[in-house]
């Protein structure tokens, strides 16, 4: 290779890297600006908590999953706003502007949910716990039964005993290392988002990529918006790392103490394996209803609209009096 060709290649590589860095900074800035001025911080007995709310009617507390924040929770809760519900979505411990406390266990987070309700003057609410938000939502129903009007667990991170067969294999050490690298920084996530979308959907969203490829344009747009909302991941990293600790040490909760009407939803091909633990959880909660889909991955691709209808009908049947009075 002649010196001139080497210099041209080096220059091309430099220009490409510079272009990529400028594009990364632009997208990161847009993600940061998207969050600006949307949420509030309220002082509570459990420390400062970031939250947003929308709509009027009986309250629905939406507890986001891993990699989320109030924005993810509000995106999940938004369809219920038009159905006459007041949606409240917080950032859990370590996410966005809610600090990570020394005790960031599911029970402490459940008490923080109650503290947020106190600060907002809400006596009683339905609650949806999504993915890694399910442990604290479940603990809220256990620890604050008089304040839980209904409980919905959606693709929940939940305990299952060893004798219950898993519904998905555990990630290999190599795959887990790749996953933690992707979520370890804004730049790493952005690069995967732009150049390894299939791996991102499989590892981070725990959804078979072929399911997304075959989905409707509306569903593909929903997935794109979910990926878009992960940035800035650096502002969510403390919560993500805490999530990893919780997932690795989950024990059985006293599910038989839950008195709130409960709906548990999961998908058989969820690559996080929530289907088996969701079935077990529903079987342990008195009179709980289990709704399972065969395909759709962790993001229930292809079932979004019908799932919203199912949850809305469940909330109407159990919080109907509250909705009528609003």
In short:
By secondary structure, the protein is an alpha/beta fold. The chain has 12 helices and 8 strands. The N and C termini lie far apart (76 Å).
Explain the layout of strands and helices.
Layout: H1 3-35, E1 40-44, E2 47-54, E3 59-63, H2 70-81, E4 86-90, H3 106-120, E5 125-130, H4 134-143, E6 148-154, H5 173-182, H6 186-195, H7 197-203, H8 209-213, H9 217-230, H10 237-247, E7 262-267, H11 274-284, E8 289-293, H12 304-325
Parallel strand pairs: 3-4, 3-5, 5-6, 6-7, 7-8
Antiparallel strand pairs: 1-2, 2-4
Helix pairs in contact: 3-4
Mean pLDDT: 93
* CATH fold annotation of the domain at 40-168 and 237-325: Rossmann fold
Distance between the ends: 76 Å
CATH superfamily annotation of the domain at 40-168 and 237-325: Alpha/Beta hydrolase fold, catalytic domain
Q: What is the SS-derived class?
A: alpha/beta
Q: Measured on Cα atoms, how large is the radius of gyration? A: 21 Å
Give the helix level as a range of percent. Answer: 40-55%
Which ranges are low-confidence, i.e. pLDDT below 50, for 5 or more consecutive residues? none
Shape: globular
Description:
The structure is a single chain. With 326 residues, the chain is of the alpha/beta class. It has a domain at 40-168 and 237-325: Rossmann fold (3-Layer(aba) Sandwich), CATH 3.40.50. Helix content is 49%, strand content 14%. The protein is built from 12 helices and 8 strands. It has helices spanning 3-35, 70-81, 106-120, 134-143, 173-182, 186-195, 197-203, 209-213, 217-230, 237-247, 274-284, 304-325; strands at 40-44, 47-54, 59-63, 86-90, 125-130, 148-154, 262-267, 289-293. Strands 1-2-4-3-5-6-7-8 form an 8-stranded mixed sheet, sandwiched between helices. Helix 3 (106-120) packs across helix 4 (134-143).
